[in-house]
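RECORD TYPE: protein structure
NAME: LURP-one-related/scramblase family protein
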Amino acid sequence: MRFLVRDRILGIGDDYWIEDDRGNKVFLVDGKAMRLRDAFELKDTEGRVLIDIRQKMFALRDTMVIERGGQPLATVRRKRLSLLRNHYRVALADGGTELDVSGRILDREFAVEYDGELLAVISRRLLSLRDTYAVDVVREDADPALLIAVAVCVINLAEKERED
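PREDICTED:
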């Protein structure tokens, strides 16, 4: 499954549609303006909130939290001691599962893996659309909404780190 995401998604307060590879609107990213911290909602085509994404306020390292139905789903933060490439860890709420995100985040060329198995590839290399990147969900049983939320979080954290 391939989803196309507009790069402007990181503008807080802006709303953007995520489309599938046939141009159908699939998810709406609703950026929440006027908040003390970064916040987004990932909604379906009928406006139901599927995922909430917010910046954790009091954390030693920049951290984003992904919630579903008001319950924590995952926590995203930069991996310590990642010198050569951008490297992020996604700790799922079950306590034992971690996703690994690595690659050139700011170039929108990275992968999401679980235990060495590829779940999704994020890339803008093969697209002719400017300011757009693709989220290719590789595994059929993977949660596309979660993987899109992970991509949004990682890009947001990398952009903030570059600004600092």
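COMMENT: The longest strand covers residues 71-78.
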